[in-house]
Structures are given as C-alpha cells and as structure tokens.
Amino acid sequence: MGKEGKDIGNAVYLDTSVLANWLLLYRKNKKTRRLAEKRARECMSLLERIRKNRYSCRFLISPYAMSELSQSARDNLIALKIMRDGLSLVWFNRLKKRYRLKNKEQADIRDSIGTFFRFLLRNKFVFFDANIDSDQVHRLSLKYGLETHDAIHLSIARQNATYLVTIDPDFLEAEPKIKEIEVARPAALETLTHLRRT
Fold first, then answer.
1. Which residues is 60 bridged to in the sheet?
2. 34-67 pLDDT, tens per residue?
3. Where are the domains of the chain?
4. How far, in whole angstroms, is CA 25 from its chain's centroid?
5. How does residue 7 score in pLDDT terms, banded at 50, 70 and 90?
6. Which of 2, 43, 12, 3 is nearest to 25 (CA)?
7. pLDDT (tens digit, 9 = 90+) per residue, 66-81?
8. Distance of CA 95 to CAs 22, 69, 73, 78, Å?
9. pTM over 0.85
10. What pLDDT shows up at residue 51?
C-alpha cells in the first residue's frame, strides 16, 4: 500500500518521455511509425499492447507529466523549423529562443494535447491528482543527481506505483541505481508476466 493507503502493487507510472513519443506518433500511419527511432518504436509497441488489453495493471498518468507535453510538442516543432533552415540541431538549446510559435501553432499544440488526453482516457489510462512532496524531491534529486523535473516524476511515481516506465537515460542509467521504485523500459513490461492478462 502507498502512503495514502492506495494499492500501488498493480500500478505503472508513465513518465513524459513515453507520453511525448505517443503524442507525436499515435495518429501517424504504420510506415511513419516504423521509420521512427528505436526508442519511439518501443514506446509505440507498449501503447499497442495496452490498447489490446494485454495487461492487468493500471497505467497512471499525472497532471505533471501531461503538463510537460506542451514543451515536448513545441520543441519538436522548433526542431523541424531549425532543420528546414539548414541549421544543426547541435545548437538547439541556443537557437530555440529565436523560433517563436505562431498563435495557430500554439493552438494546434493545445488541441493536439487535448485530443491525446481524451484518447488516453478512452483507453482506460488513469489520470490522478499527484502530490508533489518537495522534501522527497530534494532528497531524490541530490541522491541520484537528477534534474528537478525528473526528481518530481520519481517522487510522484514512488508514491503511486510499483513501476516507473521511461526511456529517459537519467532514470535508466542513474548511479547509484534507483531503489525506491522499479524503473523499466517500455519493452521490459512484456517480460513481467505478473502484469500481463492470463
């Protein structure tokens, strides 16, 4: 049981790295999905398995993870503009401030996230109110050398789930290894037979 008495034994928390790939690819055709990088394909495979009801666990999404999607979508659009201008993405962090999104582009991103959120709810994902414990965030950030936004995800996940599913190397390659919760890649869930429907 979690701190608030909720059963977390059969819950999987999805971080923004997984959700962002879903947002960018879930309405794309199969050919486009096949051409995506390996980590994105791994995320999409998990989404397809969830949609086919292959798991008996609950998949949790926090408001914090959803709120980060606008940055992911914005950065993706800006990266496309930078490449169209013939510039290198090596300089992305320096260049992105020069690329302001038009009002229509901003509205399109908000609409896309809203549509995506409704898609997740239709597919039985659990959207829950997340409590951010700042003391725990500080402790996790310092212990594992995580950026604050990653420590917030870790804090939320450990309070509400048994697994944190991510493709973020800051979690997967943390030194020391994260012990507060089981951190797993999307593909690893398929190997956890106790999470699958029988």
1. 13, 126
2. 888 889 999 999 999 999 999 999 999 999 999 9
3. 11-66+123-195
4. 13
5. low
6. 43
7. 999 999 999 999 999 9
8. 26, 20, 16, 9
9. yes
10. 93
Element (H, E) at 61: strand 58-61
* CATH 3.40.50.1010 describes domain 11-66+123-195: yes
- Name residue 185's amino acid: R
Which residues fall within 8 angstroms of residue 190, CB to CB, at 6 or more apart?
Answer: 49, 196
The C-alpha atoms of residue 69 and residue 83 are separated, in whole angstroms, by 21
> How far apart, in whole angstroms, are the C-alpha atoms of residue 172 and residue 165?
9
Asked if residue 176 has a cis previous peptide bond (ω within 30° of 0), the answer is: yes
What the block records as the tokens of 28 is: 């794309």
User: Which residues, 6+ apart, have CB-to-CB distance to 165 below 8 Å?
Assistant: 12, 13, 14, 15, 18, 46, 184, 185, 186, 189
Tokens matching residue 14: 């999805």
Q: Which amino acid is at 49?
A: R
Across the beta sheet with 182-184, the strand order is: 126-127, 58-61, 11-14, 163-165, 182-184
pLDDT of the residue at 132: 94
- Sign of the CA dihedral running 13, 38, 40, 54: negative
